[in-house]
Amino acid sequence: MPSVPYDDDAPLLADLMPWSVAPPRLGRGWPTAPDTASLKARWDALLKAEGPDREALFEPTRSRTPHSAVGQLPGRQSGTEKLARATGPCAEPVRVLRAPFDEQWLIPDHRLIDAARPELWRVADERQVFVVETAPSPPDSAGPLLLASPLLPLVRPGRIRPLYRRPGGTEPNLAPGLLAHLIDVLAWTLVAVRPGLSVPLTADPELWSRGVELGHRVLWLMRRNGDRPKLPGGRRPYVRAPLPSRPVTVHYDRAEETLQVDDGRISPVPPEAWDFEAGGVRVLEEWLAVRMGGAVEPGTLEAIRPATWPQTWTSELLELVTVLALLAELRPQQEELTVTDTITATELRAARVLPVPDGSRRPASVLDHHEEGPEGQFTLI
Known about the structure:
Layout: H1 13-16, E1 32-33, H2 36-48, H3 51-58, E2 94-99, E3 102-106, H4 118-122, E4 130-133, E5 146-149, E6 152-153, E7 160-162, E8 164-166, E9 170-172, H5 182-192, E10 201-202, H6 205-223, E11 238-241, E12 250-253, E13 258-261, E14 264-267, H7 271-274, E15 277-278, E16 281-282, H8 283-292, H9 311-335, E17 342-343, H10 345-350, E18 371-372, E19 378-379
Parallel strand pairs: 2-6
Antiparallel strand pairs: 1-3, 2-3, 4-5, 4-7, 8-9, 10-17, 11-14, 12-13, 13-14, 15-16, 18-19
């Protein structure tokens, strides 16, 4: 975090990116998984069950039961009949950000999700960047306060701030007076944001340029968009011994910089990557725990998992180690970012950059087509 006094009247992130949405609330864990085959198998198991058995597998809540009548998620194809009598195929799973730095898959079926936040789905496309507030961390944690992802986030409990208010990368979600510097403001925000989610701005061109350059690097590492970052030769993590088909234990050897998964070994894994936290949780440890599987009640849909460790997970693990190591390398530069010649919220109000119009805090009207509602009815909102 940058060094700057906390009584400097810095503008709040909520004013710089005024439109925010609460994260989706699933209500049940089984519609997400690290692999797509498990999701399709869970769907098939649900539809094979009938009556009370189907309802029990579904795990009903006050918000969703197999008898709930809901429409399709915007831009997604799924059935709209009540789930109690559904017979159709599983909606094609989509990639989501399930937890900080944990990309998983979700069945995009509105009937399975307690609170899906359709306004987020309407603006989720290849141009979008979702800024995600992480959970509060312990005072001594150096984890990021914000994440940035091209994937629709399910990360709770913080707010989600889309970079764009409309599909196709139109109408930026930014205070009007800053629109000319859209991506640069986002990059600066990622590295300059402070606890309490205020964002000190600087009028120093050299400092701004340095912070923006650093922020662009952080943004690229968080988004990647198909690119694979690499550590320099000799520091790249490799599989030294194959990971077992059904791993049970994880151990990190700090002296040897080795991640041991049963008899499998990956190294070098720098301590900075193993210790990397987000939202108060050690990212690598949590990522592995999700895929190795903890105690799950037998007979539930969530108990349907891969029988063996897929090779794709090993590739994703190596990439995650690389991303966390590279982000950790940037942390000292971020901490040395001493913000001087600050632009205060009072000055932004005097310049009529703030306050933002009230309408910019609400979803934009983006519907120019029909969306299928419950039981195949078409609606136009």
